[in-house]
Write a structure and sequence with these properties.
Elements (H helix, E strand, L loop, with lengths): L17 E2 L2 E2 L2 E2 L2 E2 L2 H15 L7 E5 L6 H11 L6 E5 L10 H11 L1 E25 L7 E11 L4 E7 H9 L6 E6 L5 E7 L13 E2 L7 E11 H10 L3 H5 L10 H17 L2 E5 L1 E5 L6 H10 L7 E6 L3 E3 L6 E3 L4 H4 L2 E5 L5 H15 L2 E2 L1 H13 L2 H6 L1 H10 L4 E2 L1 H10 L3 H10 L7
Parallel strand pairs: 5-16, 5-19, 6-15, 11-12, 15-16, 20-21
Antiparallel strand pairs: 1-2, 3-4, 7-8, 7-10, 7-13, 7-14, 8-9, 10-11, 17-18
Length: 441
């Protein structure tokens, strides 16, 4: 049975597709936009060399020309652990939070902190596990774990340990059995299942448990753990004065975080970085439809770009000359001129038919849609005449129609049928003009 999972719009993008400073025509999920990708590659070099302070990037171009894809590719080029926070300009208008608070939280979600911590643990393969049961304190007809004895083994040592009810309960809850490799934190008693030890797989031909090597060295050892959080996670922890578990397993409702809390978190993070306990992972904050921001939000971003703890800010817009929201002033892209002067602006252009063909091939492969040559050309024509987004959105509906007709491959007639069922933006505008008098105003 085929597995059908949710496929993201930009899940196929792995980088900018640039080799020795020159973009390849089709590479790492990107097609065309050679000049824009060359400029984005220069941006990546500026970021890596620490020369982006006080600056941001603006992507401008018509709808459907790959502005979001370019922002995702920049984040991918910076590394797999680079935080990427995306929001639309209209999302800052909330009844619960101030606009500047929404932007501040988004910025701090785009900055990661990798924390290293050394802890003493018990690690080994569970050779034997005995559970003691006793009467439930509230129900005399039920039994609960009251403790037990476990035997752990490594390649050099075997030890038998008496453990309390809390540890035994965690082991039962996580489905830990003999042959599993586990960690037990000495300080907290937290039990972590690592996987199934090789050589202990049992008599099963198929097992969903991941196979791992038998631990080496002593059972009781000091081990380094690495956690990656964002500055916003630390803000919430400091604000609630709770542990990491409150972030992992839920906490209080969203609210504004006081400035003094953020200042305390910043001081703490700087101390960790200076002591070598942590390192910062500056990420990317991508704001699409940036023309939806108002003058207050633009002023905040101008100040934020100067901050010592600021992510890489990438704005995108498809607007030309328009009013700055909250004013009567017309400006390019609906942004203040003093902010535009501080932005590195990258333009994108319309895709050619050949580029649209390559993009549809990539998306059809990503979504598992088998296209016949005629169906591909039909989609390319729709992409040129109507829009690329429209053509891409018809891929899976066409597959459903083909399967309904008993075929695994999408043919031209399948594409033509879904094109009749779902109209494009241009057709929708024409429909409105045709029946303008019948629509409510």
């Amino acid at each position: 049975m085929a597995e059908r999972g949710r496929v993201g719009t930009h899940s196929h993008i792995r980088g900018l597709g640039v080799r020795d400073g020159e973009p390849l025509p089709v590479a790492e999920g990107l097609v065309g936009q050679v000049e824009a990708r060359r400029a984005a590659w220069v941006i990546v070099q500026l970021i890596k060399s620490g020369r982006m302070a006080g600056r941001a990037v603006l992507l401008v171009g018509p709808p459907g020309t790959g502005k979001t894809a370019l922002a995702v590719a920049i984040a991918r080029e910076l590394g797999p652990e680079t935080p990427f926070m995306a929001l639309s300009g209209s999302e800052i208008y909330s009844a619960e939070l101030k606009k500047t608070e929404v932007l501040m939280q988004a910025m701090r979600k785009a900055i990661g902190v990798r924390i290293r911590e050394r802890r003493w643990i018990y690690e080994g393969v569970v050779e034997k596990m005995e559970v003691r049961y006793g009467k439930h304190p509230l129900n005399p007809y039920a039994e609960v774990p009251t403790g037990g004895v476990i035997t752990l083994k490594t390649d050099k040592e075997t030890r038998t340990l008496r453990v309390d009810a809390n540890i035994i309960y965690q082991m039962l809850q996580r489905g830990i059995t003999e042959g599993d490799v586990i960690w037990i934190d000495e300080e907290t008693g937290r039990v972590t299942r690592v996987g199934r030890a090789k050589g202990y797989a049992g008599d099963y031909d198929i097992s969903p448990k991941e196979l791992v090597d038998v631990p080496s060295g002593p059972i009781y050892k000091e081990k380094e753990f690495v956690y990656t959080l964002t500055l916003h996670d630390l803000d919430e922890m400091q604000s609630r004065r709770e542990s990491l578990l409150s972030i992992l397993f839920g906490g209080s409702a969203q609210r504004e975080i006081p400035p003094d809390v953020r200042a305390q978190v910043d001081r703490t993070v700087k101390e960790w970085v200076e002591s070598g306990r942590a390192e910062l992972l500056p990420g990317v904050l991508f704001i699409d439809d940036a023309h939806m921001l108002d003058i207050e939000a633009f002023s905040f971003l101008s100040r934020a770009m100067e901050s010592e703890l600021s992510p890489i800010i990438i704005l995108a817009t498809n607007r030309g000359l328009t009013k700055i929201r909250g004013t009567d002033v017309e400006s390019p892209h609906g942004m203040p001129l003093d902010l535009l002067d501080r932005l590195l602006i990258i333009k994108t252009s319309e895709y050619t038919a050949d580029e649209i063909r390559e993009i549809i091939k990539i998306r059809s492969h990503e979504e598992g849609v088998d296209l016949s040559p005629d169906a591909l050309e039909s989609l390319v024509r729709l992409g040129v005449e109507r829009s690329l987004r429209y053509a891409v959105q018809l891929l899976y509906p066409a597959k459903i129609v083909a399967e309904r007709r008993g075929r695994s491959r999408v043919e031209r007639e399948d594409v033509e049928q879904v094109a009749r069922l779902f109209i494009s933006t241009k057709e929708s505008a024409e429909y409105l003009k045709q029946y303008e008098e019948r629509f409510l105003r």
